[in-house]
Write a structure and sequence with these properties.
With 142 residues, this protein is of the alpha+beta class. It has helices spanning 9-19, 63-74, 78-87, 105-115, 119-124, 127-140, and strands at 22-25, 35-41, 47-53. It folds into 2 domains: 9-87; 105-140, no CATH class.
Amino acid sequence: MTQWPAPTRSDHDKFCRNEGWRRLRDASGRAGTHHITYEFDLPDGSTLRTRISHPPNRTNYGPEMWKHILRDQLRVTEGGFWACVSEKIRPDRGQLAQPLDTLPAELAHLLINRVGLPEDKVAQMTKAEAIARLNQYWAKQE
């Protein structure tokens, strides 16, 4: 016996709404479609897509279909899914690594074009080192 309840279309829909997926299509007013389609953009630039058969009611998913939805469409663990559904805790999707100490573009431009430093050397400098080097350049100009 599993520790999670049987997943339903309604749970699937609630997960998508709680995590902030974009609703693309639904069955209301559109001939020929019988699914609700959601998309979600990941930090790495890829986009997830999932479809829920209409209506999003208490109809259960079979175990194999549910494994497919979790793994291939939602890319989330079952625990992460239920935490989002019941407690609105969004799954950790990761984030793009942000450089901790980037140089402002104008500072890099001055170091390369005015001071004459090679780009690879400027790219390795911290912000404090770059400012110190530019101050040293200005001090010699007086």
